[in-house]
Amino acid sequence: MLELHGVSKRFGETLAVNSVSFSCQRGELVGIIGRSGAGKSTLLRLLNRLSDPSEGRITWDGEDVSRLKGSALRKWRRRCAMIFQQFNLSPRLDVITNVLVGVVGERPLMSSLIKFFPAADRARAILELDALDMAGAALQRAVTLSGGQQQRVAIARAMLQEPDLILADEPVASLDPVNAEVVMEALQKICRERNVPVIVNLHSLDIARRYCTRVIAMAKGAVVFDGPPSALTPQVLDRVYGGRASAPEPFSVVEAA
């Protein structure tokens, strides 16, 4: 179980994350919503320790991951897979090699540099791609894929790490509605079938309502709502978006001006 205990992050005089506390169980798909600048992305960077908290603790099954350093910290970052809005694939490499990047940290440096991966790793990569209906594109260059296909390759790469936790920073923000649905269904399936908690930053209220088991809303770095999507009332949304949110159309994007 992931637990945050009074976690804050300051950048100079700016309090980007303000005393955030919550827990996340295995099998939960948690959507984080809020206006731009609310602290959502900073929070994810704190969870995978790309950024260090100014105050508070982050624990996983009782282990204080906010204090990890060196090899222990690198191991945590592999256990805490990150999926980004822009996919972060190498466009000139084929799909299967992009997926195999997920195990680079566990293999000798030289074998990774010459792109030599054991047959067992390649088989695992194909299985992860197949689970996302992408095995047929294994030998295609990533640049030839659509945005939705590239995001599914990025998810396969993350799953090859065999993560304890998946973090996704606006993974559907650059996708059309159909591909957004495919990607969210993939994350939902992973969460349900593999019992891996998924925490995803979202701008679309409709997607949060349709796919998340729980929603956490942030405003000015603090948590102002934590509950089921059904409890996202107009009054709650006024607190989150400062009166700028209206009832969203399907897959509409609600952003700050």
From TrEMBL:
This is Phosphonate ABC transporter ATP-binding protein. Residues 2-245 form the ABC transporter domain. InterPro entries: AAA+_ATPase, ABC_transporter-like_ATP-bd, ABC_transporter-like_CS, ABC_transpr_PhnC, MetN_ABC_transporter-like, P-loop_NTPase. It comes from Phenylobacterium glaciei. Keywords: ATP-binding, Cell membrane, Membrane, Nucleotide-binding, Translocase, Transport. One of its GO terms (molecular function) is ATP hydrolysis activity. Signal peptide: none annotated. One of its GO terms (cellular component) is membrane. Pfam families: ABC_tran. The keyword Transcription regulation does not apply. The keyword ATP-binding applies.
